[in-house]
Amino acid sequence: MATTTQPQTGAKPAASLSNEEILRYSRHLIMPEVGMEGQLKLKNAKVLLIGTGGLGAPLGLYLAAAGVGKLGLVDFDVVDFTNLQRQVTFGTSDVGKPKSEAARARLANLNPDIEIQSFETQLTSANALELFKDFDVIVDGTDNFPTRYLVNDACILLGKPNVYGSIFRFEGQATVFGMPDGPCYRCLYPEPPPPGLVPSCAEGGVLGVLPGIVGSIQAMETIKLILGRGENLVGRLLLFDALGMKFRELKLRKNPNCPMCGTHPTITKLIDYYEFCGVRGEEAPGPSVQVPEITPRELKARLDHGDDLFILDVREPHEYQICNLKGHLLPLGELTRRVHELDSSREIVAHCRSGKRSAEAVDFLRKAGFRKVLNLKGGILAWSDEVDPSVPKY
After folding, report:
1. What pLDDT band is residue 196 in, cutting at 50, 70 and 90?
2. pTM of the model
3. Catalytic residue among 201, 261, 277, 323, which?
4. Which run of H or of E encompasses 382?
5. Which of 19, 73, 295, 392 is 20 to 30 A removed from 191 (C-alpha atoms)?
6. Can you list the domains of the chain with their CATH numbers?
7. 3 state SS of 110
């Protein structure tokens, strides 16, 4: 399905390219499928990127290089060292800077002829419609379910295409939602998964090159929408397996009973998406269950005092190799069948990377009859921050 997009603001469309732009985009201009007409469509287009990280990096770089006339960048995070493995917009000197501003500076250097507007803010139900209204295409580069549902619903309400992508470990997917005859995100995922069921990239990891591939596919789909050329991924979910180096495709159908885009929609305004997804905030910081905790400093004091504490590490073996507190390794997934290895008479302190998995372990052990069991608040990351900076963070 080919479609074009038109500028949504009252600004007068650009009618020509400068000599410098003709030289810059010459490899586009000599292609009959693009030519001067197509390049002017790109110059007049306005695209909003939700997220400037893993997917947002190749998106921003390629859309800026292609000459998309106005790019909006929505991100409220700051650059840290763990981003540099995959978020190729940023360099080491950007660590600690707001992502939206660091990305704006990089893209402006790549193409000074385009307009780049950064929004250093979290996308919410209160600001989404206002942020989206002046852009032609919305590109979803987010990594959490509440924001994905929010982007979808705002696009449907405003009639904007939603170029979607997601990644995890070695797998990625992409499609285009929100077209008049096509499905929306709710057609594919009517209900969000239970909180904690699907780990984030911070918890499960992601191969650094994967977002480059999926983000580039999103950029390609965005450019095709603007040019009105080719067959878009409307009604098609493209799945990519990096380990097998295989692409496969699933057909998506518009659900006539979809509460958002169906024949008789029941959702007519933006809602509380964290409540809808059953989480308390961005990536649900902190443990998902409430259990007794001990802070890293309290644990250090008790260990120094010689208290008989059993340190239970519920991470995976490959994480234990990165750093550890010399505790007993028993991965969370094996806890139910190996619980007999633990002595319920000893006081146990469970930990993981950030405190979420160990909170689940403590909750299970307490229900199994263990009475003296605590969760290390903040996990080994907090231990590194508050007790021993020599312990590497990951």
Report:
1. low
2. 0.79
3. 201
4. helix 379-386
5. 73
6. 19-277 (3.40.50.720), 293-386 (3.40.250.10)
7. helix
